[in-house]
């Protein structure tokens, strides 16, 4: 079973298997009734339990939600996927003073954000528009965590903590990402002690890159 946590617009960029399950951010918000990241992870948990995927693929905020959901399963000794593939995203060490899109999302209208994404070749899931206030709240949560982490790191220098993560993991990285700093991906790789990390595309959105190349990377990592 391939369980994917990603926007509908990138359905085809890793190839579709008959047993692929697509989970969108809108799906999780509908299920959780909230865009709180912890609640989204709780909403994802039962789906992972039901589908018992062999592989999970995640991108952007879906990466954060997926890691939280799987950490809960690791802690409880539940069945885990055989492999995880992560595209650009952050779990810790995200610096909102460097990557400021969580801030400008608070200041721009939903239509303006959709227009800016469209200019990059990205189509916003229409269902997200009705959840705009919840999504802004989610990004305020990210801003608060980032700033608290920034202050605490200034007061006390802390080494990057490596988590117990017994899952074979590949990071397919997009270079020159305007939304996710390279430092956040570096920290993610250390935190999870990832099995492999490769450069796969340019920018933030993997489905705008070489789909044949990315599909090959995904299919070869199992």
Task: Using brief descriptors, characterize the structure shown.
222 residues; alpha/beta; six-stranded parallel sheet; 14% strand; globular
The sequence of SSEs as H and E is EEHHEHEHHHHEHEH
Radius of gyration: 17 Å
- C-alpha end-to-end distance: 11 Å
CATH 2nd-level architecture of the domain at 2-94 and 161-220: 3-Layer(aba) Sandwich
Structural class: alpha/beta
Number of helices: 9
Question: Proportion of β residues?
Answer: 5-15%
How helical, in percent, are the residues? 40-55%
Mean pLDDT: 87
Largest sheet: 6 strands, parallel
Main-sheet strand order equals 2-1-3-4-5-6
Question: Layout of helices and strands, plus pairs?
Answer:
Elements: E1 2-5, E2 20-23, H1 25-32, H2 37-51, E3 55-58, H3 61-76, E4 83-86, H4 101-107, H5 110-119, H6 126-129, H7 132-155, E5 168-175, H8 182-192, E6 196-202, H9 211-220
Parallel strand pairs: 1-2, 1-3, 3-4, 4-5, 5-6
Q: Can you give a write-up of this model?
A:
The chain has 222 residues and is α/β, with parallel strands linked by helices. The chain has nine helices and six strands, in the order ββααβαβααααβαβα. The chain has a domain of 153 residues: Alpha/Beta hydrolase fold, catalytic domain (Rossmann fold), CATH 3.40.50.1820. It has a six-stranded parallel beta sheet with strand order 2-1-3-4-5-6, with helices on both faces. Helix 1 packs across helix 2, helix 2 packs across helix 3 and helix 4 packs antiparallel against helix 7. It is globular, with a radius of gyration of 17 Å. The chain starts with a strand and ends with a helix.
């Amino acid at each position: 079973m391939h369980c994917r946590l990603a926007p509908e617009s990138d359905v085809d960029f890793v190839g579709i298997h008959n047993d692929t399950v697509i989970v969108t951010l809108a799906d999780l918000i509908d299920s959780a009734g909230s865009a709180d990241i912890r609640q989204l992870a709780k909403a994802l948990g039962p789906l992972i339990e039901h589908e018992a995927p062999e592989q999970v693929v995640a991108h952007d905020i879906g990466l954060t939600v997926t890691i939280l959901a799987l950490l809960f399963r690791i802690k409880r000794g539940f069945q885990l996927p055989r492999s995880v593939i992560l595209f650009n995203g952050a779990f810790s060490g995200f610096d909102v003073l460097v990557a400021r899109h969580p801030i400008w999302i608070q200041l721009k209208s939903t239509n303006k954000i959709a227009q800016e994404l469209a200019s990059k070749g990205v189509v916003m899931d229409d269902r997200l528009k009705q959840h705009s206030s919840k999504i802004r709240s989610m990004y305020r949560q990210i801003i608060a965590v980032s700033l608290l982490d920034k202050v605490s790191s200034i007061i006390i220098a802390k080494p990057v903590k490596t988590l117990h993560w017994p899952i074979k993991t590949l990071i397919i990285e997009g270079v020159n990402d305007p939304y996710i700093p390279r430092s956040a991906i570096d920290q993610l790789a250390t935190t999870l002690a990832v099995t492999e990390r490769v450069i796969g595309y340019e920018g933030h959105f993997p489905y705008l890159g070489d789909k044949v190349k990315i599909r090959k990377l995904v299919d070869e990592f199992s």
